[in-house]
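User: Teach me something about this protein's shape.
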Amino acid sequence: MALDAATRAFLDKMAAAAAKPRHLLTPDEARAGFRNLRLLLAPGAEVAEARDLAIPVEGGTLRSRLYIPAGGEPQALLVYFHGGGWVVGGIEEFEPMCRDLAAGANVAVALVECRKAPEHAFPGPLDDAWAALKWLAANRVEFAGSDLPLLVGGDSAGGNLAIAVTLRARDENGPRIRGQLLVYPVTDCRFDRASYTDPDNQLMLTTDVMKYYWGHYVPDETQRASPLASPCRAESLRGLPPAVVVTAEHDVLRDEGEEYAQRLQAADVPVELERRAGQMHGFLMMRGILPGSDSGMAYTTGALKRLVTTIQQGDLK
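Assistant: First, the predicted structure itself:
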């Protein structure tokens, strides 16, 4: 299926405004450009509460914002790590998406802003994500009102961090994670899969941009094969929590995300996998910009509801 018309028009507008290719920007230039996206986004759904949290970590604190849905007790707590190639992005750009996740799925969402590369290279952002997960799990009764089932999620590089903390939780006797939401996640450091080499997928996220992000996050290429950086290379995925995996048809990360989902299934982990036709990387955060974001969000929140229902039914047995 061809890229949808709204996405093509948006890309043409962005290309006309760009001073130089994204992979040639400094990290500060890239961050400034990404922040401008916030001016275009719809505000996201109304929630009962949006509360800032300061999560203690070694060397300081992490910003986090908790979204409590309106209209009833939330059914789970989703700890969410945002995308941006481990280099760009923050709470403000991903707030509309997380508001919609909270309202649509009736879950509390804690959006976490980890420290960024290259100032904090691998495993720094992962260590931040791990510390945030443990703190949020330990304190959820205090700030969420009950011992809610714990989910983790993220998009793109945030999906990579979400997977990594599930691996650590399994292997290091960490918090009990009941489910995971992975939106076009980074799962490997290879650049030769078909979705990477297809010229039709060189859109907002290109091969060159992903090489730029990996170069900042894991500059030592010998470390990139670590399963905590490239989880497709983990020896075993058994014992991980059930997952919802969403990919985009025209995305360089499509094949590695789907390969990871297939590996989960082969390890007897329940997976709901959805490829969104006609969409590019990043479409789900484009609230109010791309129509495909609306339909994608409706699917994603529905899948989250199904996942939480399955967890609850299992608890009643």
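Now, about its shape. The chain has a mean pLDDT of 96. Strands lie at 49-57, 60-68, 77-81, 108-113, 150-155, 179-183, 243-250, 271-280. If you'd like, I can walk through any region in more detail.
User: That's plenty for now, thanks!
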